[in-house]
Structure to design on (1258 residues):
């Protein structure tokens, strides 16, 4: 039974969390005090009695993990850190200031924050990823706690998480929904109708517990019940009041994301019983376990392919990933129900214990990858490249999380043929280039794919590999190297009149064009720009110098933002990019401009004017033109 | 009671739909016959007895609407069109061929297809949009029928649709889930567990009916029950078998997305009772109603702002949208629970009957916009620009749908300040530029915003407006015009040494830099590139000619794919883009390169080197440099 003393301690801590949330935001002049106040009682009990976390060793594999999905309640999180003794009152007052670790929404700039939040509906799907790691890979008994706002349950990604968590029986995952009834601009869709939340959660296979989120005994009992269940995840649906504890704020509209003015602050703090400086000793995990390593690392034996054979790069991806799996026990794979198309199924068959089927839920897939890398796994997540666009916000946020994930998109471009435009990724290079910390790779051959996949594993940031559906000729030897940031000069002479730059499927069109042009005694350099970001600036500059500034870039992508844009950037003045000093640039971009339909790959490449015919024509238009116009 | 004759007719039609799905895919050599066969009985009954549709007048406002969310079952849809007498057997055999209207997945190239499908989980949320139009705007009694696959219910967007459909009591919306148990690579998550589907649907407020999807009587009864309910949407959860009717296919793995070979086809057709050439008369809608026009159009009176005042462009968006609402009764607005930040709330207050609160569900918001434009409404959908990235796949598919929608993203860039990177859109220009049919606008001033908003209404395709959180000076008169595709030369002289190109917040930094440079006797041209796509190529070329090729582009966006990329494209050889013939281009791109944190807008602009200081430095580096390097 809970003692009166215990209740008093919790109460005092909760009031301190409220007071500190107000103090920090008032100093900052902005932020979300009222959203921080509604779940303060719940957090007080969690921090005092349930969380198992060694603040001095955030990487301790036995630590529980806490994700503040309602990231705008960052002041509450920082107040908790203060109560735990790891940040000072002084640092709390740096909230939202330039250079402070206490950003407006939490990011891993703080050592105790695993993932950035603030785009709502992401914390729970990421929590699923961490819980998958805990239950199936680490096999350690830690818990993953996720605090959600009620508004964010409108996001479908939250229901992808509900679905996957029960599918994978994640009894180590505990969600708390802070049902304070008020969103940014008014009442939420469901208000305080906690029964509906509970019914939905139960239909998705969860234990659902409805409580008064300001009743400390109910909170305590709910946490106990959550820890007791061992066949499903638990969600605690807590009815709360926004701005709880201050009459002028409590359950009132118009206070979302507003700091109190000095006079209001004074009154509010008085009402909450004044400032406190309570420090609590957060319990460290009792367990001293180590993650279960899944298999013994073998020397890396990448697949090899014979030159001249026809092999799809997606096929090589599956082979290489499987090889990587043998060599690196931390490599894990996820796929969104198309593993027989992306060839992630090879890995799934070889290492079923390290493969997670994510069904058709790309947001959850990317979020799970982010969660898995929190625990140092190296997730490769694959789907059709077109469908990765479903999770673009998760990729954007993964960058804010400083996450290290690998995304693999197959079936890129119109060269997929008959299936039509819904299945064709034509914007993926643009979208993925415009992500901080990203690497964008687009191999043209199976041996090259294998070498790139092996480098992806240790590459930090968001690493994207674009693969091709069609089988294409193997043009490189299996012993060649393809460093990220490099390129490959596939054809060159000392008489080159232009340079053709392709990648993936279009490199093969460039090679066909090379042959035809050579028959007409026009020699061109052909560059395989397999590393779209970072791009090989020096090789491009040299080619432009050697070929009179004539460049033709050809890509199976919309005209905007892809390979052509990457090449143009190599010649622009951007930060530390070396300056180009050669003949004046004359660059032609060949890319998809009209909405394609169905057809054979060859027909579609031709219709879009990104095939050998179009390249030949473009090169001729350049070499015929006098220099210097 | 259903007669034996009726049952026989339905059976025969269903068999024909199966046979034709096989015939078309065998000729094509690819496609999805088995996924077309499982729901054939359901479609036979729908087409024969429930659908109200005038195939000769697809725009008839009283028509029911049918959306094939499982777009890979396109052969079934085309077989239905053949049965309805609107396409020939010959055209059926053109499936998946270049130039055919019968693409691998349905697109509006066909007059009876309202929206493209094929990226799963989109049909139902789009159906919500059409049903919103029917119930609240048209106020006509047509129904919206959506056929989903079972696999696609893993997509969170489906649950956003379940949620919103019940919230808006869309009793005119009827979903059918074809539970054939088999996904692309194996069993679905829930298999034939139709009870779980039903429980989830009911928890989300729907009438759920479980049936045997091959029992014609049960199908008929379910449709009747769906039409009878008038307080909620209905979902029919139909247990079916993939490849139904052919023993070598039925309920077997390994047959997803595979056409039968000629010999297999012959056997299968025999088993299904041979070819049939049944034509049916689809019932036309009995009603002859017209859409209820919501209000009488008034002359357009755009808001005006005094030069020198400080007004946020997001504020002007709200004002202008409201003005547009008075002038154009077809303008409707949606927002994802941030209408008090985007200022869509002004429209919501003025025209509550034309405003749809989408809560925090950006995928559903964009899908609803697509659905609303099916019925000729002009939807403006707004959220923080960062969060529109949540619906990127829906934007991509909206382009395939040839949809006319307007997206408005507020709080763009690091200039939002303290809230930190999770709230900052820094990839939106890149992402939206790389969408077919897109227009990308980024105004710098309130009067300009109003003029652009008024042009958005009639602009086809995906039209994106990026607005700024901060208040910025009004620099233009309210009588000035800002055509899409244009730009504005804000400062110029006949002694300009360089050109600075900005848009939105950075234009104001450019103007500050102009003043400072002028004090040092360096004159620069300043261009406001408010139309990022299409960009004003001629004005850029002229500026480059006039200012010795010295261009500085400054944008509050990542370095990739945004305004700088648009300017570079203006000087590249792309299709019909005019050729530049002036001094050699020396272009400096100033954009965000490091992950920002919190800070004041001014601090963050400075830290990112996209403020006046950085512009001054860049211009000086250019004008100091001798020409021709």
């Amino acid at each position: 039974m809970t003692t009166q003393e215990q209740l008093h301690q919790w109460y005092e801590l909760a009031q301190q969390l409220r007071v500190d949330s107000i103090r920090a935001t008032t100093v900052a002049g902005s932020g979300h005090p009222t959203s921080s106040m509604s779940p303060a009682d719940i957090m007080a009990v969690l921090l005092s009695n349930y969380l198992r976390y060694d603040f001095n060793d955030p990487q301790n594999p036995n630590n529980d993990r806490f994700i503040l999905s309602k990231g705008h309640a960052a002041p509450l999180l920082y107040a908790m850190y203060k109560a735990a003794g790891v940040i000072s009152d002084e640092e709390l007052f740096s909230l939202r200031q330039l250079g402070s670790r206490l950003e407006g929404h939490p990011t891993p700039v703080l050592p105790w924050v695993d993932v950035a939040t603030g785009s709502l509906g992401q914390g729970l799907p990421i929590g699923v990823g961490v819980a998958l790691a805990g239950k199936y890979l680490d096999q350690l008994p830690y818990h993953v706690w996720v605090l959600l706002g009620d508004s964010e349950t409108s996001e479908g990604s939250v229901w992808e998480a509900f679905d996957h968590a029960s599918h994978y029986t994640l009894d180590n995952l505990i969600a708390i929904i802070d049902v304070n009834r008020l969103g940014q601009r008014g009442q939420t869709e469901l208000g305080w109708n906690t029964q509906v939340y509970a019914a939905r959660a139960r239909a998705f296979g969860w234990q659902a517990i409805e409580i008064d989120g300001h009743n400390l005994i109910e909170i305590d009992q709910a946490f106990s019940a959550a820890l007791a269940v061992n066949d499903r995840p638990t969600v605690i649906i807590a009815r709360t009041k926004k701005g709880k504890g201050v009459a002028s704020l409590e359950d009132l509209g118009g206070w979302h994301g507003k700091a109190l003015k000095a006079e209001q602050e004074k009154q509010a703090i008085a009402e909450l019983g004044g400032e406190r400086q309570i420090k609590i000793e957060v319990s460290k995990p009792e367990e001293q376990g180590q993650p279960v390593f899944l298999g013994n690392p073998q020397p890396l034996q990448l697949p090899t392919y014979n030159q001249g054979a026809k092999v799809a790069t997606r096929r090589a991806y599956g082979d290489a990933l499987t090889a990587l799996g043998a060599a690196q026990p931390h490599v894990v794979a996820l796929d969104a129900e198309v593993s027989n198309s992306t060839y992630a199924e090879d890995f799934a068959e070889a290492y079923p214990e390290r493969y997670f089927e994510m069904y058709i839920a790309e947001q959850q897939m990317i979020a799970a990858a982010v969660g898995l890398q929190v625990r140092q796994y190296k997730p490769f997540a694959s789907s059709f490249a077109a469908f990765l666009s479903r999770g673009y916000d998760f990729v954007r946020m993964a960058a804010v999380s400083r996450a290290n994930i690998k995304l693999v998109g197959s079936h890129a471009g119109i060269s997929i043929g008959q299936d039509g435009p819904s299945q064709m990724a034509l914007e993926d290079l643009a979208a993925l280039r415009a992500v901080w910390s990203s690497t964008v790779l687009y191999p043209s051959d199976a041996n090259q794919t294998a070498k790139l996949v092996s480098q992806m594993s240790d590459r930090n940031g968001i690493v994207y590999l674009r693969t091709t559906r069609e089988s294409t000729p193997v043009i490189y030897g299996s012993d060649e190297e393809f460093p990220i940031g490099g390129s490959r000069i596939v054809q060159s002479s000392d008489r080159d009149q232009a340079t053709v730059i392709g990648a993936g499927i279009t490199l093969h069109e460039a090679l066909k064009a090379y042959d035809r042009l050579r028959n007409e005694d026009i020699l061109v350099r052909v560059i395989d720009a397999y590393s779209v970001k970072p791009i090989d600036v020096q090789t491009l500059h040299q080619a432009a110098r050697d070929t009179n500034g004539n460049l033709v870039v050809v890509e199976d992508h919309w005209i905007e933002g892809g390979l052509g844009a990457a090449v143009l950037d190599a010649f622009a003045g951007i930060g530390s990019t070396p300056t180009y000093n050669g003949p004046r640039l004359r660059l032609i971009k060949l890319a998809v401009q009209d909405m394609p339909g169905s057809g054979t790959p060859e027909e579609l490449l031709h219709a879009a004017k990104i095939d050998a015919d179009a390249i030949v024509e473009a090169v001729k238009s350049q070499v015929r033109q006098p220099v210097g116009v």
